[in-house]
Amino acid sequence: MGNKGTPTTEADLTLLEQKLRDRETEIALLCETANAVSSELDIETVFRLVTQRAQAIINAETVLIPLLDTDCRHYTYRAGFGKNTEEIVGESLPLDFGVCGWVWRHKRPWWSGVLDELEEEERNKWEKEAGSLIMVPLFGKHHFLGGIAGINKAGGGSFTRRDLDLLTLFANQVSIAIENAAFFEEIIRAKQQAEAYQRELEALNVELEKRVEKRTEELAGANIKLKQMALHDPLTGLPNRTLIQERLKYSIAHAKRDGRGLSIMMLDLDRFKEINDTLGHHAGDQVLMEIAVRLSALLRESDTVGRLGGDEFAIILPGADIHSAKKLAAKINAALENPLELEGCNLSLSGSLGIATYPDHAVDETELLKFADVAMYTAKRTSSGYFVYDAKSDSHNHERLAFVSEIREGLKKNQFELFYQPQIELTSGKIVRVEVLARWPHPVKGMISPDVFIPMLEKTGLIRAFTHWVLDTALGQWAAWRSAGTHVGTTMGVNLSMHNLIDPSLPDLLMGLLRKWDVEGDCLMLEITESSIMNDPSQVIRTLSRLKETGVKFSVDDFGTGYSSLTYLKRLPVSEIKIDRSFVMEMSANEDDAMIVLSTIHLAHNLGLDVVAEGVETQEALDTLIRLKCDIAQGYHISRPLPADKLVEFIKTAETLLSARSRSG
Question: What is the pTM of this model?
Answer without folding.
Answer: 0.46
